[in-house]
């Protein structure tokens, strides 16, 4: 439920690159979670 201090954001398009996937999968062993890739 949306509270009085919340907003709703409608995402129309989104993109992700190969580097983001490598980081999310921790393929290089250096990722820290939680993370915001991109």
Protein architecture, described:
- The chain has 38 residues and is mostly helical.
- The protein has one helix at 18-24.
- 18% of the residues lie in helices and 0% in strands.
- The protein is elongated.
- The mean pLDDT is 91.
Number of strands: 0
Overall pLDDT level: 91
Q: Helix share of residues?
A: 10-25%
Low-confidence stretches: none
Output the helix-strand order: H
Gyration radius (Cα, Å) is: 15 Å
Terminal CA distance:
28 Å
Domain Alcohol dehydrogenase-like N-terminal: 4-38
Keywords: Metal-binding, Oxidoreductase, Zinc
GO molecular function, one term: metal ion binding
Pfam families: ADH_N
List keywords for this structure.
0% strand; mainly alpha; single chain
What is this structure's SSE topology?
Layout: H1 18-24
The gist of it:
With 38 residues, the protein is mainly alpha-helical. It contains 1 helix and no strands.
């Amino acid at each position: 439920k949306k509270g009085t201090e919340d907003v709703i954001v409608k995402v129309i398009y989104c993109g992700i690159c190969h580097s983001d996937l490598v980081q999310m999968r921790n393929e290089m062993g250096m990722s820290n979670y939680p993370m915001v890739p991109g």
